[in-house]
Write a structure and sequence with these properties.
alpha+beta, Outer membrane efflux proteins (OEP), TolC family protein, OMP_efflux
Amino acid sequence: MPLVAAMCWLTTSAYAQATYTLPQLIELAQEQHPRIRAAREGVNAAGAAVETARALPNPEFEVLRGSQRARLPGAPEGPVSTVALTQRLDLPPQRAARIGAASAGLDAEQAQLRLSRQELIRAVKLHYHELLRREAESDAAQQDLDLLNDIRDRVKLKVSTGESPRYDAIKAEAEALNAQKAAQSAQLRVELARAALKNSVGNVLPDDFTLAAEDMLEHELPQLPTLRELEEQVLQRNAGMTRARALTTRGREQLALERALRLPSVSVKAAVDQQPDIRSSRIGVNLTIPLWDQRRGPIGEASAQLARLRHEEDQARFDLRQQLREAYQRYQISRNSVAALETGIVAQSQAALRVAEAAYRFGERGILDYLDAQRAWRNARNELIAARFEMRTALADIETLNGN
């Protein structure tokens, strides 16, 4: 009995693991996707660069040995040696600019990690809702196929008994064939959406995974603030904007570093000379004078790079505003469409279908009227499915831009 219970538990666990909610898919993607791993390594490298920038120059130790021979009578002879220690000074302007540039680089890589994570989450959300949409379309297409096959069989029966003309059978057969083609296309789109979702998560999902569908009801959607308030939030919280600002800061610090490198480099040197009859010590300063190379080239390059980064930051701010406005408008339009379809169009087309079906059964209307009503209801239902997907897509874009 314990073995049977354990096997049942394992089977239940394996089945449960094959059904995923959206938060589970997002967690899997953040743990397994190579893009996130690469971004984490970028942060590690930038952190190491900060440590490098903070490091002090190493001292230089020098030992010289030789011999002294007398060239004049009475001069001492014997071994001689020199021991010297040189320490280059890390000037405060250069050190501060170097650390500032490295710290801004770390901020940029951390923002890039956030940006990669947000883009990955957005991709998972879009493909998740895309798969839900395609599955809903496939289920609807299969229901349409079953219904039209049933209508075709009933029409054929009426044609065989002489109650309906042969044209009705031809029309019903054509509608059934179209429904069969639509069902096959819908199933193919389901498979493509499954592959896209699996790829966005990181190819760690089993082949037979299923989704725990979420309700896409309008009352469950968050209430968004006004566009102006949302724009202020996005400009402060967006990872791409944070990265652009960090890159501009790094460019500014790099320019300050290049200018500071024009200062003379200073080293302190101490030495002890040991001669056969004399022991002497010295201490002094080694100064490199920037006479010929005044770093005009590196300073000009850093200045142009800073100007380019400032322009890119302005462009990123402009693009961010445009993307937010577009997503906000798409969300409002699709939300209104969903409300109109749910409360009016779909219900009306469904009521019209019931009337047409009843009229067809009682012989008051022909097959063409019934099929037209069927087509109008299917179009309204498919529009509702597409509008719900568009609403979720726009909401995912807004959440991504807002740093969620």
